[in-house]
Specification:
The complex is a heterodimer. Chain A is built from 3 helices and 11 strands, in the order βααβββββββββαβ. By secondary structure, chain A is of the alpha/beta class. The relative contact order of chain A is 0.09. Chain B folds into 2 domains: about 220 residues, Aminohydrolase, N-terminal nucleophile (Ntn) domain (Glutamine Phosphoribosylpyrophosphate, subunit 1, domain 1); about 70 residues, 2-Layer Sandwich (Alpha-Beta Plaits), CATH 3.30.70. In chain B, about 25% of the residues lie in helices and about 30% in strands. The longest helix of chain B has 14 residues. At the A-B interface, loops of A face loops of B.
Chain lengths: ~240, ~300
């Protein structure tokens, strides 16, 4: 007898008629048990907080533009936005993957601890602010104050960066392919090593991108703000 | 928080639907601004020698036809009043400054909301959907509009503190954000004879830009000057008789999304207020960059 496998099951929500609460409640309490291969969301129409707080290896596809905080606090799940994202996409993500096919508004990936955030288009200001261990790959450019006070994790920017990139960086590392309008305090360009090139290659591959790792520059902390200098008289 | 909406129709065939297209934009911003709402709509201009004055009577009933008779006795010229509940648009052939000062003396309970050739202004307290119904926003026609839903953070919730703010002729401004130096701006403008009606921070920005326009700046020059004079957070959306302009501060803390198609330019704080617009799937969407000025003309 042939080894018959059940057809992959897609569960669809249409936010023109289904409520956001119904969708998120299903994602939190039922989806993992149902064993669905994919949860598909239609007509998000800029709604806030779609697919926040997921805690299971779900595959979620959102077809359209979303509002604030999509996939915030994501854990284990893979969430793809086939459109643009509002402020705070994947903020505080713990693990899993969030992929925005369009552009992302301010503070994408803010404070994310783990997982991978991919933005195919541009990211606005403060992308990866206070990054705590996640990886971010931006296909386009990032706005000012990106990676501000980023503590851990890696950020790959295929386009340009605006002002104050990496201001007050801790241990996070930034790789940029294009122009940087200005670096933030205590951020500096450093030579690319083979390890850096391998890191960039791996992250680009994970994001499905084909840029050449040799074209990226490394930015990391000069660590002059790491310790309080009583003699500096607050003049940094 | 606050919500802003703007709409300019490029396709003249859509001018009749301007209000109907806008109402879901405005009500879509209710969560950002549930306590008051307002709208400036730019219509076909009145004749060159005429001016339109938008009036608001608040809770007090006004005998508009008696007001019309009194205006005719005082100024002689033909006047018309189009009334929508406690709001009315007065069209006058007399000197608008004289009419406004006469109204202030003769009908002190009637507030002047705007003066110009094409601007009509509505603002009131309450939920945006209720205000839209109260003034039948869905029936409004025109070329462009500027709307706002308010969540007050720095001054009282009254119709006068609602946005849009106006100054001069056919100029209005709405604001999402907060200014930290409105009193300094006011201190600078008042000695120049510029009169303030409220203690609202946005009014300072509105009067600053209008003063610059009278001093000969175009709107883009006035806004550029504002970058060094106005301190605080802002997304400003402004209207003149033939222009719609949006600008965000250097930190772009307050959101804005623009959708542009061959038929229209639509602006809102968030995409959810644009999602219903015709053929939105094919419109170009973008977020205005910090301190970049975007403007469109009718």
């Amino acid at each position: 007898m042939a080894n018959l496998k059940p057809l992959p099951c897609v569960r669809e929500f249409d936010l023109a008629s289904d409520s956001l609460r119904q969708l998120n409640s299903y994602l939190h309490h039922r989806a993992a048990g149902d064993g669905v291969a994919e949860i598909r969301v239609r007509n998000p129409d800029g709604a806030h907080s779609i697919a926040v707080g997921l805690n299971a290896p779900l595959e979620v596809h959102i077809h359209g533009h979303v509002g604030y905080y999509v996939a915030g606090m994501n854990c284990h799940a893979s969430v793809t936005v086939h459109g643009n994202a509002g402020p705070g996409a994947a903020e505080n993500m713990m693990s899993g993957r969030v992929h925005v096919k369009g552009f992302a508004s301010t503070a994408a990936g803010a404070s994310a601890h783990g997982g991978l955030l991919v933005i195919d288009g541009d990211a606005s200001l403060r992308c990866g602010i206070s990054l705590k261990g996640a990886d971010i790959v931006v296909g386009g450019s990032v706005g000012s104050f990106s990676a501000f006070m980023a503590q851990a994790g890696r950020m790959v920017i295929c386009g340009d960066a605006e002002d104050a990139l990496g201001d007050s960086l801790y241990e996070a590392v930034i790789y940029v392919r294009g122009k940087v309008r200005s670096l933030g305090a205590d951020a500096r360009f450093e030579p690319m090593t083979d390890t850096d090139r391998a890191t960039v290659k791996g992250l680009l591959a994970a994001a499905g991108r084909a840029e050449d790792p040799a074209h990226f520059k490394r930015i990391a902390s000069a660590k002059s703000l790491y310790h309080w200098h009583a003699d500096a008289n607050q003049e940094y | 928080m606050c919500g802003i909406v703007g709409l300019l129709v490029k396709n003249p065939a859509l001018r009749g639907q301007l209000g109907a297209l806008m109402v879901p934009m405005l009500t879509g911003m209710t969560e950002r601004g549930p306590d008051s709402a307002g709208l400036a709509v730019y219509t076909t201009p009145v004749a060159a020698q005429q001016r339109k004055i938008s009036l608001y009577s608040g809770e007090r009933a006004v005998d508009w036809s008696a007001l019309l008779d009194a205006l005719a006795r005082e100024f002689g010229e033909a006047h018309e009043i189009a009334q929508h509940g406690n709001q009315a648009v007065l069209t006058t052939g007399a000197d608008a400054d004289r009419v406004v000062s006469w109204l202030t003396r003769t009908a002190p309970t009637v507030a002047v909301l705007s003066v110009g050739q094409s601007i009509d202004l509505y603002k009131d307290v309450g939920a945006p959907a209720d205000i839209a119904k109260r003034y039948d926003f869905a029936s409004l026609q025109g070329t462009h509009l500027v709307g706002h839903t308010r969540m007050a953070t720095e001054s009282a919730v009254t119709p006068k503190h609602a946005h849009p703010f106006t100054a001069g002729r056919d100029f209005c401004l709405v604001h999402n954000g907060s200014l930290s130096n409105p009193h300094l701006v006011r201190k600078r403008l008042e000695p120049l004879g510029i009169h303030f009606e409220t203690d609202n921070d946005t009014e300072a920005a509105c009067r600053f830009f209008e003063w610059r326009l009278r001093e000969g700046d175009d709107l883009t020059q006035a806004v550029t000057r504002g970058f060094s004079e106005l301190d605080g957070f802002f997304t400003f959306l402004m209207g003149t008789g033939n222009e719609l302009l949006i600008v965000r501060d250097a930190f772009a803390c307050k959101p804005a999304v623009v959708a542009e198609s061959d038929d229209y330019v639509a602006i809102a704080s968030e995409f959810r207020s644009l999602a219903h617009l015709p053929d939105i799937a094919h419109a170009t969407l973008f977020e205005p960059k910090p301190e970049e000025i975007y403007s469109w003309r009718i």
